[in-house]
């Protein structure tokens, strides 16, 4: 179980990285596509999109840590 949660957290970080790359490269189905389309003229919208993506990634990572702490109390390696 500890290894599974380590893999989940690593995969989670890589997934959020790829979401940001997709947003920046202009993927048509991206979450914040309108914010990157007008990147030169709407800096406020781009920054708001960056904050939302960053905050969402942080919150979901913290949720994984909380789940990890609750499920792995029995593990001697558990010191997260």
Strand-pairing-aware structural class: mainly alpha
| Radius of gyration from CA coordinates | 16 Å
Order of helices and strands: HHH
Helix content: over 70%
Average pLDDT number: 78
Give start-end ranges of low-pLDDT stretches. Answer: none
How many helices? The count is 3
Number of strands: 0
Indicate the proportion of strand residues. Answer: under 5%
Largest sheet: none
Shape: elongated
What can be said about this structure in brief?
It is built from 3 helices and no strands. The protein is mainly α and 80 residues long. It has one domain.
Structure notes:
This protein has 80 residues and is mostly helical. It has one domain. Helices cover 72% and strands 0% of the residues. It contains 3 helices and no strands. It starts with a helix and ends in a 9-residue tail after the last helix.
